[in-house]
Amino acid sequence: xxxxxxxxxxxxxxxxxxxxxxxxxxxxxxxxxxxxxxxxxxxxxxxxxxxxxxxxxxxxxxxxxxxxxxxxxxxxxxxxxxxxxxxxxxxxxxxxxxxxxxxxxxxxxxxxxxxxxxxxxxxxxxxxxxxxxxxxxxxxxxxxxxxxxxxxxxxxxxxxxxxxxxxxxxxxxxxxxxxxxxxxxxxxxxxxxxxxxxxxxxxxxxxxxxxxxxxxxxxxxxxxxxxxxxxxxxxxxxxxxxxxxxxxxxxxxxxxxxxxxxxxxxxxxxxxxxxx
Length: 276
What we know:
Number of helices: 10
Helix content: 40-55%
Number of strands: 12
Strand content: 15-25%
CATH class of the largest domain: Alpha Beta
CATH superfamily of the largest domain: Periplasmic binding protein-like II
Distance between the termini: 73 Å
Largest sheet: 5 strands, mixed
CATH topology of the largest domain: D-Maltodextrin-Binding Protein, domain 2
Number of domains: 2
Strand order of the largest sheet: 2-1-3-12-4
Radius of gyration: 25 Å
Protein backbone atom coordinates (compact mmCIF):
# COMPACT_ATOMS: atom_id res chain seq x y z
CA UNK A 1 0.00 0.00 0.00
CA UNK A 2 2.79 2.44 0.91
CA UNK A 3 4.58 1.68 -2.34
CA UNK A 4 1.38 2.27 -4.33
CA UNK A 5 0.75 5.63 -2.57
CA UNK A 6 4.32 6.74 -3.21
CA UNK A 7 4.02 5.95 -6.93
CA UNK A 8 0.70 7.83 -7.19
CA UNK A 9 2.16 10.85 -5.38
CA UNK A 10 5.19 10.87 -7.67
CA UNK A 11 3.01 10.83 -10.79
CA UNK A 12 0.91 13.69 -9.41
CA UNK A 13 3.96 15.83 -8.65
CA UNK A 14 5.40 15.22 -12.13
CA UNK A 15 2.05 16.21 -13.64
CA UNK A 16 1.97 19.45 -11.65
CA UNK A 17 5.55 20.35 -12.61
CA UNK A 18 4.89 19.54 -16.26
CA UNK A 19 1.79 21.74 -16.26
CA UNK A 20 3.71 24.62 -14.66
CA UNK A 21 6.53 24.24 -17.14
CA UNK A 22 4.08 24.24 -20.08
CA UNK A 23 2.43 27.39 -18.79
CA UNK A 24 5.76 29.15 -18.56
CA UNK A 25 6.63 28.20 -22.13
CA UNK A 26 3.24 29.49 -23.35
CA UNK A 27 3.70 32.84 -21.64
CA UNK A 28 7.06 33.28 -23.31
CA UNK A 29 5.77 32.38 -26.78
CA UNK A 30 4.67 35.91 -27.63
CA UNK A 31 7.94 37.41 -26.41
CA UNK A 32 9.90 34.83 -28.40
CA UNK A 33 8.02 35.58 -31.63
CA UNK A 34 10.50 36.07 -34.45
CA UNK A 35 8.27 36.01 -37.53
CA UNK A 36 6.12 39.00 -38.46
CA UNK A 37 3.56 39.12 -41.26
CA UNK A 38 3.08 42.79 -42.13
CA UNK A 39 0.17 43.75 -44.39
CA UNK A 40 -0.16 46.87 -46.55
CA UNK A 41 -1.88 48.09 -49.66
CA UNK A 42 0.36 47.97 -52.73
CA UNK A 43 2.17 51.26 -53.22
CA UNK A 44 3.97 53.68 -50.90
CA UNK A 45 3.16 51.99 -47.60
CA UNK A 46 4.20 48.58 -48.81
CA UNK A 47 7.40 50.26 -50.00
CA UNK A 48 7.78 51.99 -46.63
CA UNK A 49 7.66 48.65 -44.83
CA UNK A 50 10.11 47.08 -47.28
CA UNK A 51 12.72 49.84 -47.19
CA UNK A 52 12.15 51.56 -43.85
CA UNK A 53 10.75 49.05 -41.36
CA UNK A 54 11.72 45.54 -42.47
CA UNK A 55 15.52 46.11 -42.37
CA UNK A 56 15.36 47.38 -38.78
CA UNK A 57 13.25 44.44 -37.66
CA UNK A 58 15.60 42.01 -39.39
CA UNK A 59 18.48 43.53 -37.45
CA UNK A 60 16.51 42.64 -34.31
CA UNK A 61 16.33 39.04 -35.46
CA UNK A 62 12.87 38.94 -37.03
CA UNK A 63 11.85 37.32 -40.29
CA UNK A 64 9.46 39.77 -41.96
CA UNK A 65 6.98 38.89 -44.70
CA UNK A 66 5.23 41.80 -46.41
CA UNK A 67 1.75 40.88 -47.68
CA UNK A 68 0.22 43.26 -50.24
CA UNK A 69 -3.49 43.94 -50.70
CA UNK A 70 -5.46 45.75 -53.40
CA UNK A 71 -8.33 46.99 -51.20
CA UNK A 72 -8.96 48.57 -47.80
CA UNK A 73 -11.08 45.73 -46.36
CA UNK A 74 -8.95 42.61 -46.45
CA UNK A 75 -5.91 43.97 -44.53
CA UNK A 76 -8.07 44.44 -41.41
CA UNK A 77 -9.94 41.17 -41.91
CA UNK A 78 -6.61 39.35 -42.20
CA UNK A 79 -5.23 41.08 -39.11
CA UNK A 80 -8.33 40.31 -37.05
CA UNK A 81 -8.28 36.69 -38.22
CA UNK A 82 -4.65 36.18 -37.24
CA UNK A 83 -3.25 35.90 -40.77
CA UNK A 84 -1.30 39.12 -40.18
CA UNK A 85 0.54 40.44 -37.13
CA UNK A 86 0.35 44.11 -38.15
CA UNK A 87 -0.77 46.29 -41.02
CA UNK A 88 -0.07 49.76 -42.38
CA UNK A 89 -2.52 51.42 -44.78
CA UNK A 90 -5.18 53.39 -42.84
CA UNK A 91 -5.63 56.42 -40.63
CA UNK A 92 -7.15 56.37 -37.14
CA UNK A 93 -10.60 57.56 -38.21
CA UNK A 94 -10.93 54.73 -40.73
CA UNK A 95 -9.65 52.19 -38.19
CA UNK A 96 -12.09 53.30 -35.50
CA UNK A 97 -15.03 53.18 -37.92
CA UNK A 98 -13.96 49.76 -39.18
CA UNK A 99 -13.76 48.42 -35.62
CA UNK A 100 -17.22 49.74 -34.82
CA UNK A 101 -18.87 48.51 -38.00
CA UNK A 102 -17.28 45.06 -37.91
CA UNK A 103 -17.06 44.33 -34.19
CA UNK A 104 -13.26 44.13 -34.23
CA UNK A 105 -10.71 45.17 -31.62
CA UNK A 106 -7.74 46.45 -33.61
CA UNK A 107 -5.45 49.05 -32.05
CA UNK A 108 -3.34 51.84 -33.55
CA UNK A 109 0.23 51.95 -32.28
CA UNK A 110 2.22 54.71 -34.00
CA UNK A 111 1.63 57.11 -36.89
CA UNK A 112 3.98 57.33 -39.86
CA UNK A 113 4.76 59.93 -42.53
CA UNK A 114 1.82 60.07 -44.93
CA UNK A 115 1.34 61.45 -48.43
CA UNK A 116 -0.76 64.62 -48.10
CA UNK A 117 -3.69 65.63 -50.28
CA UNK A 118 -2.53 68.13 -52.86
CA UNK A 119 -3.95 70.64 -55.32
CA UNK A 120 -2.55 69.78 -58.75
CA UNK A 121 -2.92 71.85 -61.92
CA UNK A 122 -1.74 71.84 -65.51
CA UNK A 123 -3.32 75.28 -65.89
CA UNK A 124 -1.72 77.21 -63.05
CA UNK A 125 1.81 77.36 -61.69
CA UNK A 126 0.75 78.78 -58.33
CA UNK A 127 -2.29 79.55 -56.20
CA UNK A 128 -1.86 83.24 -57.05
CA UNK A 129 -2.63 82.46 -60.70
CA UNK A 130 -6.08 80.94 -60.07
CA UNK A 131 -8.72 82.78 -62.08
CA UNK A 132 -12.38 83.53 -61.49
CA UNK A 133 -14.65 80.58 -62.30
CA UNK A 134 -11.87 77.96 -62.17
CA UNK A 135 -13.07 74.35 -62.14
CA UNK A 136 -11.95 72.26 -59.16
CA UNK A 137 -12.42 68.50 -58.90
CA UNK A 138 -12.67 67.15 -55.34
CA UNK A 139 -13.20 63.67 -53.85
CA UNK A 140 -16.85 62.67 -53.53
CA UNK A 141 -16.38 60.67 -50.31
CA UNK A 142 -17.04 62.70 -47.13
CA UNK A 143 -13.67 62.24 -45.41
CA UNK A 144 -11.47 63.16 -48.37
CA UNK A 145 -13.87 65.90 -49.46
CA UNK A 146 -13.44 67.54 -46.05
CA UNK A 147 -9.68 67.44 -46.52
CA UNK A 148 -10.00 69.01 -49.98
CA UNK A 149 -12.14 71.89 -48.74
CA UNK A 150 -9.81 72.52 -45.80
CA UNK A 151 -6.85 72.61 -48.21
CA UNK A 152 -8.68 75.06 -50.49
CA UNK A 153 -9.26 77.26 -47.44
CA UNK A 154 -5.61 76.99 -46.38
CA UNK A 155 -4.70 78.14 -49.89
CA UNK A 156 -6.93 81.19 -49.50
CA UNK A 157 -9.38 80.19 -52.23
CA UNK A 158 -12.49 79.74 -50.05
CA UNK A 159 -13.66 80.38 -46.50
CA UNK A 160 -15.37 77.76 -44.34
CA UNK A 161 -17.80 78.18 -41.47
CA UNK A 162 -15.53 78.32 -38.38
CA UNK A 163 -18.09 76.28 -36.44
CA UNK A 164 -17.89 73.35 -38.89
CA UNK A 165 -16.14 70.22 -37.64
CA UNK A 166 -12.90 69.95 -39.61
CA UNK A 167 -13.17 66.27 -40.48
CA UNK A 168 -16.80 66.66 -41.61
CA UNK A 169 -16.58 69.83 -43.70
CA UNK A 170 -18.73 69.72 -46.85
CA UNK A 171 -19.49 72.09 -49.71
CA UNK A 172 -22.44 73.34 -47.65
CA UNK A 173 -19.98 74.76 -45.10
CA UNK A 174 -18.36 77.12 -47.62
CA UNK A 175 -19.26 80.67 -46.56
CA UNK A 176 -17.09 82.58 -49.04
CA UNK A 177 -16.10 81.61 -52.59
CA UNK A 178 -14.54 84.85 -53.92
CA UNK A 179 -13.24 83.28 -57.15
CA UNK A 180 -16.53 81.50 -57.85
CA UNK A 181 -14.83 78.12 -58.00
CA UNK A 182 -16.85 75.49 -59.84
CA UNK A 183 -16.67 72.44 -57.52
CA UNK A 184 -16.90 69.07 -59.29
CA UNK A 185 -17.06 65.97 -57.03
CA UNK A 186 -15.48 62.81 -58.49
CA UNK A 187 -14.53 59.32 -57.35
CA UNK A 188 -11.11 59.60 -55.70
CA UNK A 189 -9.57 57.15 -58.16
CA UNK A 190 -10.56 59.41 -61.08
CA UNK A 191 -9.01 62.55 -59.65
CA UNK A 192 -5.45 62.11 -61.03
CA UNK A 193 -6.86 61.78 -64.56
CA UNK A 194 -9.08 64.81 -64.03
CA UNK A 195 -6.03 67.10 -63.99
CA UNK A 196 -6.27 67.17 -67.80
CA UNK A 197 -9.92 68.30 -67.83
CA UNK A 198 -10.23 70.72 -64.88
CA UNK A 199 -8.19 73.70 -63.70
CA UNK A 200 -7.35 72.24 -60.28
CA UNK A 201 -7.66 68.68 -58.96
CA UNK A 202 -7.64 67.95 -55.23
CA UNK A 203 -5.96 64.53 -55.16
CA UNK A 204 -5.48 62.47 -51.96
CA UNK A 205 -1.85 61.50 -51.44
CA UNK A 206 -2.19 57.76 -51.96
CA UNK A 207 -3.88 58.27 -55.34
CA UNK A 208 -1.31 60.89 -56.32
CA UNK A 209 1.58 58.52 -55.54
CA UNK A 210 -0.14 55.63 -57.32
CA UNK A 211 -0.45 57.85 -60.41
CA UNK A 212 3.29 58.68 -60.21
CA UNK A 213 2.69 62.32 -59.33
CA UNK A 214 5.57 64.19 -57.76
CA UNK A 215 4.04 65.45 -54.52
CA UNK A 216 6.24 68.52 -54.68
CA UNK A 217 4.63 69.51 -58.00
CA UNK A 218 1.37 70.37 -56.19
CA UNK A 219 0.54 74.09 -56.13
CA UNK A 220 -0.57 73.49 -52.51
CA UNK A 221 -0.31 70.61 -50.04
CA UNK A 222 -2.64 70.14 -47.09
CA UNK A 223 -1.60 70.86 -43.53
CA UNK A 224 -2.49 67.32 -42.58
CA UNK A 225 -4.46 66.81 -39.34
CA UNK A 226 -2.94 64.08 -37.17
CA UNK A 227 -6.16 62.05 -37.51
CA UNK A 228 -5.42 61.53 -41.21
CA UNK A 229 -1.91 60.16 -40.84
CA UNK A 230 -1.61 56.43 -41.44
CA UNK A 231 -0.87 54.19 -38.48
CA UNK A 232 0.52 50.76 -37.77
CA UNK A 233 -2.33 48.62 -36.44
CA UNK A 234 -2.19 45.39 -34.43
CA UNK A 235 -4.73 43.30 -32.57
CA UNK A 236 -5.52 44.92 -29.22
CA UNK A 237 -4.22 41.82 -27.44
CA UNK A 238 -0.79 42.41 -29.04
CA UNK A 239 -0.61 46.11 -28.23
CA UNK A 240 2.00 45.47 -25.51
CA UNK A 241 3.70 42.52 -27.20
CA UNK A 242 7.48 42.59 -27.68
CA UNK A 243 7.20 42.54 -31.48
CA UNK A 244 4.89 45.59 -31.35
CA UNK A 245 7.37 47.44 -29.16
CA UNK A 246 10.12 46.57 -31.63
CA UNK A 247 8.09 47.85 -34.60
CA UNK A 248 7.58 51.16 -32.79
CA UNK A 249 11.27 51.36 -31.88
CA UNK A 250 12.29 50.85 -35.51
CA UNK A 251 9.87 53.56 -36.73
CA UNK A 252 11.18 55.97 -34.09
CA UNK A 253 14.77 55.38 -35.18
CA UNK A 254 16.98 57.85 -37.04
CA UNK A 255 17.50 55.21 -39.74
CA UNK A 256 13.78 55.13 -40.52
CA UNK A 257 13.63 58.92 -40.83
CA UNK A 258 16.63 58.86 -43.16
CA UNK A 259 14.73 56.49 -45.46
CA UNK A 260 11.70 58.81 -45.37
CA UNK A 261 13.82 61.85 -46.27
CA UNK A 262 15.50 60.00 -49.13
CA UNK A 263 12.68 57.94 -50.65
CA UNK A 264 9.43 59.62 -49.60
CA UNK A 265 9.88 63.30 -50.43
CA UNK A 266 6.78 65.37 -49.80
CA UNK A 267 5.31 62.99 -47.22
CA UNK A 268 3.94 64.84 -44.21
CA UNK A 269 5.71 63.83 -41.01
CA UNK A 270 3.71 63.26 -37.80
CA UNK A 271 4.11 65.66 -34.90
CA UNK A 272 6.12 63.17 -32.83
CA UNK A 273 8.75 62.97 -35.60
CA UNK A 274 8.91 66.74 -36.10
CA UNK A 275 9.47 67.20 -32.36
CA UNK A 276 12.39 64.73 -32.12
